[in-house]
Amino acid sequence: MTLGLRRSSAIVWATTCILLVALVATAAWLVASERRDAIARADAVVTQTVAGSEAELNRALLALDLQLTSLAEVIAPAWRAGGKLDTDAAHRAMAAFKDRQLLFNDAALIDANGLTLAASLPSSDRNGMRLPDGFAARLFSQGVPQLTISDPAISPSTTEPSVYMARIVTLPDGRRALAVVEVPMTALAAIIAQAGGADGLAITLEREDGQLLASVPSGAGLRAQQLAPPLSDDALRGGPVFAPSRLSGEAAVVAVRPTLYRSLRVTVSLPLSDALLAWQQNRNIIVTASLALIALTLMGGALSQWQFNRLADAREALARSVQTLDQALAVMPDGFLLCDSEDRVVRWNERYVEMFPWLRGVVRAGAPFHELANAVADTPLLDAPLEERRQWLHERLQMHRAGDGEWERDLGNGLVVYGTDRRTADGGVVSVFHDVTAAERRLAQAKANAEAANQAKSQFLATMSHEIRTPLNAVLGLNELMLHSSLDLQQRRHAELIGSSGRLLLALINDILDVSRIESGHMQLTSAPFSVRTAAEGVVALMQERALAKGLTLRLEPIPNEDVTVQGDVIRVQQILFNLVGNAIKFTDAGTVQVAITAEPGAGRALTLHLAVSDTGIGIDASAMPTLFDRFTQADSTTMRRYGGSGLGLAITREIVQMMGGRIETTSTPGLGSRFVVSIPSRFVDRTELAPAPAERGAAAPSRPALRILVAEDNDVNQILINAVLTRMGHVVHLVANGALAVEAVRRGDYDLVLMDLQMPGMDGMEATQAIRALGDARAGVPIIAMTANAFEEDRRACLAAGMDDYVAKPIDVEQLAQAIARRSVAVG
User: Fold this and answer.
1) Handedness of CA 454, 457, 461, 462 (dihedral sign)
2) Is the separation of the CB atoms in 351 and 434 below 8 Å?
3) pLDDT given at position 105
4) pTM here?
C-alpha cells in the first residue's frame, strides 16, 4: 500500500506541473485572442453603421432633391393668364405640399432677386424666408444646378438649429428660382442614427470642408461648426482605420463614407476605450480565473494526496454502510425495491419477495423492472380479465417511469398492497409496498357507515321538514282564517299569540334547514342585478312593525347613491339583513336600531357592499365574542331564557357571508349596544339590468275572479284550509286526495289552475304532473303550482323540471299564494 501511494503521489504532482504550464499558456493566448476579436468587432460595428447611415441619408437626400425639383410643379396651378402668380393659391399649394412631408419644417420658392414667391409657413410667405448670407447667391452662380446645404442656423420659425437645402429650378414662366426647404438638425441626426450601433459610437454628418451638420450623440450643436482637420479624400474608402474621434479627438476606430452628393460625408467613430472595454473586463476575468485555477490545481494536488490516504478508510466505511443497509432492509415491515436510472433492479428486501412470492425466481440485480411487472401481471392469482391485466401493466410501467405515483392492488393472495414510487436524486426509483389489508377493510366499512349516516340524516331532515310543515301549515292557515273572523279581544289576543308562536317555530325550522343545506353543500348562491336601496327598504319595511311593537325606532340611513345597482344574490343579502335587524330588535328594549348601506368602489366596476346594523340594546360581553357565531350558542343562559331563540341566526349569517367571499365584524359595549358590519365583494351594473328585489311587497296582481281551481291534497285539515283560503279569494275549488284522482279530474273537467301537493299516497305530485303533461290535448297545458312542505332548493328545481309552472312552500303564505295564482292566470289569460 505504501509503494502504491508513493507512485500515485508522483503521478499527481507531475500532472499538476503540466497543468500549471498549460494554464499560463492558455491564459496568454486567450488575452491576445480576445483583444483581436474586440478590434474586429469594433471594425465590423463602425463599418456596418457607416454603411447603414450612408444608405439612410442617401434615401433622405434623394427624396428631398426630388421634392425640391417638384416645387415648381406644385405651384403651377397658381399661375394665371398673363404669367401672373396667384400668391394665395401658391401659398395653399405649398402648405399642402409641406403637410405631406415630415422631414422639413418649411419650404419656399425664391426668385433671383431674393423675393419669396411662395412659402408653406404663413410667416415665411408673408415676410419671406430668411436664408444665411450669401447662400442664395452661391446657388444662382452654379453652372449645373445641384443640391446644396447651408451652414447651420437658428430657424426664425422654430428657434431650433436647422440647415437649408436648396437647388435651382425653372418656373413655368421661364425664370430660374431657388427651391429651398428648412430641415431641423435633429431630423438629420435621426436619419444618420437609424443604423443604430454599439454604446460609445459617434456619428457625424459633415461637409467636405469639415463643417459639422449633425451628430449623434448631439451636443456639439452650433458651437462646433468646424471639425479640424477636414477629412482627406484618402479616408473616404469606408474601411475602418485608427484615427482621432471626430467629436472627442480621442483614439478611435473610424470609418468614413461619402454620400451620393460628394460634398457630404458620414463618419462613424468608436473610441478604443469603448471598443476594448469588454476585452479589458474579460482580460481581468481570465487573469483572475487563471490564478484561481492555479491555486485550485495546487490545492487539488494537496487534496489528492490527502484523499489517497483516506481512500482505504472510505472503502471500509462503504462496506460497513452496505452491511447496515442490508440489516435495515431485512427488518422493514414493508416491501422495498430500488431501481437505477435505467430502470434495472439494484436492491430489494425479503419482505418484497414475501408479498410477491411469484417474483422469487425472477428478481435479481440488474433485472429490468418490466420483467417483474410482467411476472406480476401474469400470475394466476390475479383474478382479472386479460385486457384488465394488460391495462394494469401499462399503467404500472408508466407510473414507475414517472417516479411519482401511488397505487393500491388486491393481489389475490389475501393481501391488499399500497405501493408508492419516488424518484431518487440520481434518477433511480424507490418503491415501497405497504400491506393495507386490515386498514382497507376498516376504511371501506367506515366509508359505508358514513355514507349511510349521511343518507339517513338527509332523509330524516326531508321527512321531518315535510311532517312538521304539513300540520304547521294547517295551524298557521286556520289561525289566519280565525283572525279574519269575528273574535272578542281575548280570543283575538290568543289567536295572535298562536300565530306568533307558529311563525317562530317556522323560523326555527327554516334555520335548521339552512344549516343542513350549508353542511351538505346544497346551499347555492344566485347572481342577478338588484337595487341596494330597494332591497334594504324592503327589509326595513317588513321589520318596522316588530320595532314599533317594542316602541323602538327602526331607521334606514340615507344611501349615498340611491341609484346604485349591484350584482349578487339579493335573497341572501336580505336574509343577512333580516337576521341582523331581527337580532337587534330582539335584544334592544329601548332606543334605536339603525341600518346603513354603503358601496365602496374598487378597481374597474368592482365594489365592496357594506351592510351595517347598530342598536342601543344590551350589548355583548367580551368573553362571549369568541363563540358569538357558533351554532346553538347565545351570550349566556339568562339571555336565552329572557329573549328566546335557537342561536342559529348569526351562525347562518356568517356561513352565507363567507360563501359570498365576504366577512362580518362585530363591536359591542355591554349596556350600550352593538354594531355588526358585513362586507361583501360585488360589482356595479347598469340600471337597465335591475331585477325587482324579492322582498318588495306590493299589491298582488288581481287574479281573475271565479277561477276553477283543482286542489290535490291528501291531508284533511289542509283540504279544509286551502278550500277556505281559495273560496275567500273568490275562486271555485274542487278537492281530490291523490295524484291519480287529479289526473282523472283534469282529463274530465276544464280547470284554470291546479294546486298540486308532492307527497300523496299512490301517485305523487311529480308523477301526476308528468301524466297531465302527457295528455296530448289543450288540457295538458293547464298551469300547475306545486304546494308542498318540501322546502329545499332542490325540491323547487325538481318541481319545475317535472313540468310544474310555479312553487309555493308550506306553511302557505296567503299573499304569496295569491301572487302565484295571479301570475299563472295572467300567463294563460
Assistant:
1) positive
2) no
3) 87
4) 0.36
Can you tell me the distance from the alpha carbon of 785 to that of 804, in angstroms, rounded to the nearest whole number? Answer: 6
Q: Which residues contact 710 (CB under 8 A, 6 or more apart)?
A: 734, 736, 742, 745, 746, 749, 751, 753, 754, 755
Residue ranges of E strands in 380-495: 404-410, 416-423, 429-435
Q: How long, in residues, is the chain?
A: 829
Give CA–CA dist 565/692, Å, rounded. 11
Amino acid at 168: I
CA distance 333 to 436: 12
Q: Distance between CA 504 and CA 560 in Å, rounded?
A: 35
Q: Where do runs of H (alpha helix) occur along 70-162?
A: 71-74, 87-99, 122-127, 135-140
Q: Which residues contact 648 (CB under 8 A, 6 or more apart)?
A: 508, 511, 512, 514, 515, 631, 632
pLDDT digits (tens, 9 = 90+) for 289-318: 888 888 888 888 788 778 767 775 766 777
Of 131, 137, 191, 136, the residue nearest 156 (C-alpha): 131
Identify the three-state secondary structure at position 444: helix
What is the distance between the alpha carbons of residues 155 and 164, in angstroms, rounded to a whole number?
Answer: 9
Task: Name the maximum alpha-carbon separation found in the chain.
Answer: 129
Report the C-alpha gap between 809 and 816 in whole angstroms.
Answer: 9
Residue 86 is classified by DSSP as -
Cell digits of residue 306: 490527502
Q: All 3 cell numbers of residue 213?
A: 451638420
Asked if 235 contacts 256 with a C-beta cutoff of 8 angstroms, the reply is yes
pLDDT over 80 at 548, yes or no: yes
Sheet holding 202-207, edge to edge: 212-216, 202-207, 264-271, 251-258, 241-244
Q: For 552-614, give the secondary structure using H, E and C.
A: CEEEECCCCCCCCEEEECHHHHHHHHHHHHHHHHHCCCCCEEEEEEEEEECCCCEEEEEEEEE
| Rounded-to-integer distance, Cα 752 and Cα 783, Å | 7
Nearest-5° Cα angle at 190, 164 to 93? 45
pLDDT of residue 3: 66
Handedness of CA 809, 811, 815, 817 (dihedral sign): positive
Q: Nearest Cα to 514, choosing from 412, 616, 650?
A: 650
- Cell readout for 128 is 419671406
Mention every residue, 6+ apart, whose C-beta is less than 8 A from residue 483. Answer: 492, 495, 496, 499
DSSP 628-686: TTSTT--S-HHHHHHH---S-HHHHHHHHHHHTT-EEEEEEETTTEEEEEEEEEEEB--
In tens, the pLDDT along 88-103 reads: 888 898 888 888 888 8
pLDDT band at 690 (very low <50, low <70, confident <90, very high): very low
- SS3 at position 392: helix
Question: What span, in angstroms and rounded, lies between the C-alpha atoms of 182 and 106?
Answer: 5
Long-range pairs of 544-548 with CB within 8 A, sequence gap ≥ 24: 546/582, 546/585, 547/585, 547/593
Grid coordinates representing 162? 436647422
Residues 6+ away with beta carbon under 8 Å from 664:
629, 653, 654, 657, 676, 677, 678, 679
- Burial string for 595-607 (b: 16+ CB within 10 Å, else e) reads bbbbbeeeeeeeb
Rounded distance between C-alpha atoms, residue 231 and residue 206, angstroms: 9
**611 has a pLDDT exceeding 60:** yes
* Residue 252 to residue 688: CA distance in whole angstroms: 72
Q: What is the spatial distance between Cα 797 and Cα 814, in angstroms, rounded to a whole number?
A: 22
Mean pLDDT value across residues 477-499: 74
Q: DSSP character for 688?
A: G
Cell readout for 785 is: 303550482
Alpha-carbon distance 674 to 630, whole Å? Answer: 18
119 within 8 A of 125, measured Cβ to Cβ: yes
